[in-house]
Amino acid sequence: MQQSIALFVDKGYSATSIQDIVDALGVTKGSFYYHYKSKEALLMDIHRQYIEELLARQQSILQDAAPAKEKLSEIVRLLIGDMEKQGPIANVYFRELRHLKEENAKAIRARRAEFREQIESVLIAGIKSGEFRRELNPKMIAFAVLGVTNWSYQWFQPGGELSTGELAELYTDFILHGIMPTQK
Amino acid sequence: MQQSIALFVDKGYSATSIQDIVDALGVTKGSFYYHYKSKEALLMDIHRQYIEELLARQQSILQDAAPAKEKLSEIVRLLIGDMEKQGPIANVYFRELRHLKEENAKAIRARRAEFREQIESVLIAGIKSGEFRRELNPKMIAFAVLGVTNWSYQWFQPGGELSTGELAELYTDFILHGIMPTQK
Amino acid sequence: MQQSIALFVDKGYSATSIQDIVDALGVTKGSFYYHYKSKEALLMDIHRQYIEELLARQQSILQDAAPAKEKLSEIVRLLIGDMEKQGPIANVYFRELRHLKEENAKAIRARRAEFREQIESVLIAGIKSGEFRRELNPKMIAFAVLGVTNWSYQWFQPGGELSTGELAELYTDFILHGIMPTQK
Amino acid sequence: MQQSIALFVDKGYSATSIQDIVDALGVTKGSFYYHYKSKEALLMDIHRQYIEELLARQQSILQDAAPAKEKLSEIVRLLIGDMEKQGPIANVYFRELRHLKEENAKAIRARRAEFREQIESVLIAGIKSGEFRRELNPKMIAFAVLGVTNWSYQWFQPGGELSTGELAELYTDFILHGIMPTQK
DNA sequence: GATGAATGAGCCTTCATTCAT
DNA sequence: GATGAATGAAGGCTCATTCAT
């Protein structure tokens, strides 16, 4: 899975052949098919593992008895910190959904939606508690938060100007400013 | 080009064959190669046309003698409004860069960077003029702005809850709140 | 088609690869798939062509105003004579039906059944006219006639002890003796 | 062997994989190769077992001191009755000979020829004794008898209009009529 | 006796591209 | 401008077989 992720990131799922994968591992094609039923099954495994872990970690954030502000920051940190920990898997995750069979894609899409809805629920809680502005559209803001963070996967280079930690702080700040009421 | 974009959006560049394209048009493969040197040349044309138009429209926004705030809003509107006008082309644009030859990819990446740097320059101008907060990192905010807008291409459905116009307003508001100084 | 029949006869459909076929023709695999949609499509074409010709020739025999005895002999001659004319195609025809998709197999089986039913109808006519014995089961006798003739394809060697013509005479005689009433 | 016969009948030898066989049994491939040296060895075993049993039973028929007429009827009954007893094995027997190595195929073909020659010898004896018509070609009639009976394996459905016993009577009658002299 | 993992060859099919007409 | 036919390479997958455990 690790090797295949690296290759999918580099060349894309369709352009990566099973041969590429097994060559990188020094095994043979037959061996691949002993462990995976198909190329798509491998892709599905990558998707599943990624979203499940993300959801689990999000869950543990939500259980804390912390203000919405705090929870949202944690989720941003979770998503951005992941670039380092989970590495390039997120890249595959965002780009290659379409190569799953509809049946599988649906399952993943559903789990993704759950993740987004949890963000939405934090936003709603924050609006109720007065932490966030009353006039926000929580669904669209949830998408915006995901946009800011996920887009990083397209350009962020570990070892560049900023660490993931610094970037997370920067974006937490930007997002909270965007949604908290103007102070009097 | 139109037909091929539709197919690339649907199945991805690699998974779309020349046969798919010509079948959709009711012509033959030979004919394709009369008009395009290669499959990659077609992809390059799509990329080029898209970014050039975007840059041109951005240019005309920058030439106005308007406050930075205004210019930034216009750029957000430009990007989001495009989902309707240019439709799915942006999708190809964001996903299939990697299938260009390095030489071509470099050219496109350079133009994309220009677009981002122009946003950066608007942000810098705004900071200087006091419209935006002094402590912002303009480069990262430019990326954030692109994240918010470009991410929409992943989930926005024309004819859904919001129009592109409404979404643009919503996001302009979110972004400006995120970067303007807290009012006293 | 000719080459592929020869190979299918020799090694069987499954054991014959497209490579085998195109090698025998001095062309390339790509070329094969330009002309046939799939290996199974080729097999279907062979089946279709064979049974259709057989049915057409049977039809022309049935239209004659001849006694049932005569018609049955003609049909035996048709089937046995074919070994020389159509050669090995019949072999494929009898052995490889199972490799057609159910949908295609059904179509072929239906046409085969028609052929048999025509034999049955000759038998019934002969029974009615008193040419054949009253107590015969026409369906089973039709199968028996097909058994006698089709089985030849398993062992008959052109250029052996007998010509197809002689064999046809021999079998016509055997069959007619088997079904005509005992003379007083 | 039982399971493999069922699969060979259904899909053909080439199209049946070892995996198919061991899956049907709930064991593993390694296990198959503990018991059989190769896929072909299994096929050979099937062939051998079938023809040897047939020959043994034919032998016991031949030893009876009965008229040729009687013996031939017994052999027809043996062959047709087998559809019920031995079931689908005969199907494999007739179709998959070609997948044996030449060396093995030769051995089987030789035993098959013996079976046919025994029928021939019954025919010759019957001709000599005046039971059968003088002008018959015993070899060709032996082939015809095998055709009538073996062809049944292609279409006979247990539980259909006729039992194997009834079919055997019907065909015995047809064949004897075909070869016995016309009564005065 | 049986298993799980691996192998290498081969299979059917698809593909981007070419080119004579 | 367009077509039909061909090509060679590659792609996903299956297979019979092997072997250490």
TrEMBL record, chains A, B, C, D:
One GO MF term attached to the UniProt entry: DNA binding
Protein name: TetR/AcrR family transcriptional regulator
Residues annotated as transmembrane: none
Ranges for domain HTH tetR-type: 1-54
DNA-binding residues: 17-36
PANTHER family in alphabetical order: HTH-TYPE TRANSCRIPTIONAL REGULATOR YJDC (PTHR47506:SF1), TRANSCRIPTIONAL REGULATORY PROTEIN (PTHR47506)
Keywords for the protein's UniProt record, in alphabetical order: DNA-binding, Transcription, Transcription regulation
Pfam families on file: TetR_C_24, TetR_N
Oxidoreductase in keyword set: no
Source lineage: Bacteria, Bacillati, Bacillota, Bacilli, Bacillales
